[in-house]
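Input.
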Amino acid sequence: MEGRLINRSGSLPDAKTTPVADSSVLQIWGGHRLQGHVKISGAKNSALVIMAGALLCSGNCRIRNVPSLADVERMGEVLSALGVHVQRNGEILDIDASEITSSKAPYELVTQLRASFFAIGSMVARLGVAQMPLPGGCAIGARPVDLHVRGLQAMGAEVQIEHGICNAHVPGENRRLHGAKIYLDIPSVGATETLMMAATLAEGETLIENAAREPEVVDLANFCIAMGAKIQGAGTSTITIVGVPQLHSVDYTIIPDRIEAGTFLLAGAITRSEITLSPVVPEHLAPVIAKLEEIGVSVIEEAPDCLRILPAKALKAIDIDTLPHPGFPTDMQAPFMALLTVAQGDSVINESVFENRLRHASELNRLGADIRVKGNTAFVRGVPMLSGAPVQGTDLRAAAALVVAALAAEGLTTIQGLHYLDRGYERLDLKLQQLGAKVKRVSIGNTE
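Output.
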């Protein structure tokens, strides 16, 4: 891999671009139209799991279009703690996992980033052993790892969870997993990815039924295929993997972030603005575009990888049920709720994926929204106008919802909890500024 320099310190060289948690707030003066073009970054959820997938390769992997995010930085730290050499140069990430010196991931990092747990699949497949603390991340509900564990056990691993640590090892001399037929009780993205990675180096054929169909699962499969894995059916509910002895180096570009793209579409819709965004994969945004058109907004495919949003004369109330892909994505539920706060009529949002993902409703109400929550259902009555106020992001997508709402609110909105926002949106404030939004990031204590 040409020009590769390995950063042996374990940190990503451009980590300074990621703000320190809780060190700043976002000030947004709403009511301004947006215009222009916004560049969509690489998919966060692809980047994280593909970084974990790089552990399967005993050589070097170059990953392109990697967003500069706090979660990506943290994942790099997890890999470095395992002895992997990680170096960043702009949007390019070089990962050299030729020598993995530890099979134990650090507790303090994994408990902050759920996606890092998914590396247990690639570690057990490559090393025959792994010690992974139980995962953390945004507090949006229970996301147990039992599907991961049962799948690895079906493939021959012995797995025990003790004192918050998941210990897995493959008995026998060759310490190699074997193929298995696995049925997932629910189409879990994390479990599908973990078990697909594990199966790439297993002996024989693995069949994953009721698999997740998300674009990020397909992206991981394509990454593994580019390294020499034999995978069929990714993007459908049945994935077949035939294990190979080893995988080789690869130069791979990850897909655009469909959730960031959806968030900018909503920013355009709520401000009655015409903006373009690229690169995107329009089919990844199909459920979001369908709901936008139902609400009265037009989304035009200007080019195969470029979308233009045209403002609606009036926004109509609609109902939303979050579902696994290809249904409406749970990650778009909070930002879409922000848009529905100013739609005409009553909307109903049913969150069926996570049981604790409506906490942003109370923060949106601080801005003048009229939202009632009962269980996992939010009842949104549209209001003529939102008003600026101090609010607090409670998780990644909740913080994004507050940004969307603030863009249309009259006056100044101050958003705290930016460490959540920085986990999933690359320089969101700067991208909004380039579109003409009045947005300013300021340090706490300097908010005049």
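The first strand starts at residue 24 and ends at 29.
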